[in-house]
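Allow me, if you will, to draw on your knowledge of protein folds for a short while. I have a record of one protein: its chain in single-letter code and its fold written as discrete structure tokens. I should value your view on which stretches of the chain appear to form regular backbone elements. Thank you for your consideration; the sequence and its tokens are set out here:
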Amino acid sequence: MHDLPNGLPARPNSLEEHWLPFTSNRDFKENPRLVVQSEGVYCWDHKGGKLIDGSSALFCCPAGHGRQEIAKAVYDQMTTNSYTPHFQMGHPGSFELAKRVTALLPEGMNHVFFVNSGSESIDTALKMVMAFHRANGDGQRLRFVSRERAYHGVNMGGVSLSGMVKNRETFPVVMPNVVTIRHTMTGKDLFHEGQPEHDGVELANDLQRHCETYGGSTIAAVFVEPVAGSTGTLVPPKGYLERLREICDEHGILLVFDEVITGFGRLGSNFAAQHFGVTPDICTMAKALTNGCIPMGAVAAQDRIYETITNASPMNAIEFFHGYTYSAHPAACAAGIAAMEIYEREGLFEKAAALAPYFADAMMSLRDHELVKDIRTIGLMSGLEFHHDGVPGRRGAKMQKDLFWNGCHVKFTGETAIVAPMFIATRAHVDEIIDKIRTTMDQQLA
């Protein structure tokens, strides 16, 4: 066991007491993969090995690990005012962060409700939708539309909307009145950069068929990830999001974008809404909001959503009976403000956009490998999908573990590696990620 770069010894510790999320606990604890230090685009494991972070942790850290500016901002806040609840009171940092976030959003989205995670942002958005329709006298709108292969977090609202079977089959008691439309992975456009050419309008018309089946006036909202991230970077075909917007407008349905992954520069624009030129009514976010430094999420709403809900109640009355003890925690707000300053000062969204073409070409250089089934890229995110070995998920699990010991972290879902470099990454860093992925693939065939 080697000492770490900071001079501290790497010490083993007991693992059994911690029940890890989304982890094969028994397998992990036999051969743990522990990160004990991180800086920039690199991490160090408990054995002293150095890894390049190929997925920005979980898409959370585009500005890199160990940003001292964020650490100092949090320290200063914690030694000034460590906690203020936001029930009938507040602190200045939440208003400043909300102002900075709305400046990045499409025009008209000027109201932000802070939560503590992407999962909480989805449940909050569901409640906003319900409150809006109730205030409008549309209480009959009880249906929600989601997609197959969708991921909207792990709270019960998100599980109800989920289209990934393993995220819901053990938890059968979910919200009623949720219907799904098809996902956008048709198999017609393999190895594509950017948006596929085929079937965008036709796939979106699934929503129109639901309107004709159930009545558009019974549907409250449609929840979609502009790019379905956790299920393997499924990029919407051309015309798809635009057609969803048209149908929603025609039937008075709210369109909710889950931008927990795509928000804050991942596609090279502020949010995916601007990248695709489609503005939702409500937008959820988390992850890069604080550069992953402190848990935080948020929900942004168009002015009409906020005004309809607040104006439906008498003055001096609570308008929206929802919130969390740690909503807009002072330390999280400080981290968010510092992250926004870094993104702007260093032009990181622009750097992401500039690196994206090189990243796409680098990912596509892997298409000749016999293990590779498909590659999909947009902005600084890509889905690298492998042929399975007869047991779904087994190859991906082995690839992720082997890749770690080969010096690279990449997030996997089933047989798909989701590669998402940091915005501070250089072409050399991209090359390093690709080289380690190819080396690991070659080892699978040895």
